[in-house]
Amino acid sequence: RSDGAADHYEITQRAAAVEILPGLQTEIWGYDGRFPGPTIESRRGRRTVVTHRNTLAVPTVVHLHGGKTPAEHDGYPTDVIRPGGAAKEYVYPLDQPAATLWYHDHRMDFTGPQVYRGLAGFHLVRDDEEEALPLPKGEREIPLLIGDRAFAADGSLRYPALDPALRDRPGVEEAYRDGVLGDVILVNGAPWPRMAVSAARYRLRFLNGSNARRYRLALDPPPPSGPAFVQIGSDAGLLPAPAGHARIDIAPAERFDVVVDFSAYPVGTKVRLANEFGEGNLSHVMRFDVVRKAADDSRVPSRLVAAEPVSRRDAVANRKFLFGRGVGGHGEHRQAMWTVNGKPFDTRRADARVRLGTTEVWRIIADVHHPVHLHLAHFQILSRNGRGPRATDRGWKDTIDLGGSEVAEILVRFTGYRGRYVMHCHNLEHEDMMMMSNFDVV
Ligand code: C2O
Ligand code: CU
Ligand code: CU
């Protein structure tokens, strides 16, 4: 529904039985009972109002990941929608460039299991600048949510730490601590799907919606000529110029907007989207079958959007955040947790106060692999381990994939709104185990 001021959506969060594995029913928790949830599309600068009704048996929180959203609508972890039919209206100004955003659950301590059960969906932002570009559109523009899950023999989702039958088995605690992995790869909710494509360019918007798994995406066979992926966009929008990659590492919550030219392959070729980080079934994500020749008037221009000049010299402050193991709780409740600067998350404590409209350099240090995400603020990656960024680091980001013992410098621009926002590890089990910190924009 649209009126003069805004586009309105209504979403019911509910349990539903769906067929994911052939012949079996899986109970999911989905937006409108679907996984992924319905894709929302917005125009830059036009208000989108989404009313979420929670009919699940647990509290929920909705966060628009990548959105520049006023704090009261950002989905702060304790700002819950009560179970049993309560509703909340989330108002998104979306005064930001065209980008692949996504919405997902963000409930304090329970984000991992709730997203695992299906509470995630795409929210695309479009604008005139993007629309004027001759990129592939319509049925040749495809958002792909990649996520791994584990299933019990009866088809139900298996989330080890919550399953009493599994909780006491050896290795389960470690599996939870390091992030929950599955042995089935789903793309848009289907296991290892196949898709018939024309010998033409396609725009694929990759989103890693996994709780903890990273992928190294590649095409198998690689195209006989040209790069496998022409990256046109990153987390927060289009790049100034396209960049070719043979492979793309994608950590939880990252997005890569790429064009793949299937006309580089002879008709009849089956092109696997492979995961070079995985073995066996986990080395395969999906398959594109090039089934027909087709007209194609799309192209990837050498200039996409105007570059916004930002430089390290603009930074008014430097800060350091160490994402690592630590201890939290008191007395006999002290236990190992994941922390930021040695401290577990506390809603009452802000670890940084930044001024609206300023730019800062943050050094982020990781003990083991952590994909670090900031709400509200987008950033550019300046360096990794004292050297330049990766080829796939360019553009405005909201999530940075950090390897073990890695140090990165990011240039963060705090535009948008004042208020308390979180940054956290997007390994959702790490997030739930307190690897989260507040920053206040004042
Ligand atoms: Cu996608 Cu705070 O999260
Ligand atoms: Cu976010
Ligand atoms: Cu982590």
Automatic annotation (TrEMBL):
Q: Which Pfam families match?
A: Cu-oxidase_2, Cu-oxidase_3
Instruction: Tell me the GO molecular function terms.
Output: copper ion binding; oxidoreductase activity
Q: Which InterPro entries match?
A: Cu-oxidase-like_N, Cu-oxidase_C, Cu-oxidase_fam, Cupredoxin, TAT_signal
The Swiss-Prot or TrEMBL record describes its family as follows: Belongs to the multicopper oxidase family.
Q: Which UniProt keywords apply?
A: Capsid protein, Signal, Virion
- What is the source species? Sphaerisporangium rufum
PANTHER family registered for this protein in UniProt = BILIRUBIN OXIDASE (PTHR48267:SF1), CUPREDOXIN SUPERFAMILY PROTEIN (PTHR48267)
User: Keyword Signal, does the record have it?
Assistant: yes
Q: What is this protein called?
A: Spore coat protein A
Query: Domain named Plastocyanin-like: which ranges?
Result: 17-129, 332-441
**Record's keyword annotation contains Signal:** yes
In terms of SUPFAM superfamilies, this protein maps to: Cupredoxins (SSF49503)
Q: Which domain of life is it from?
A: Bacteria
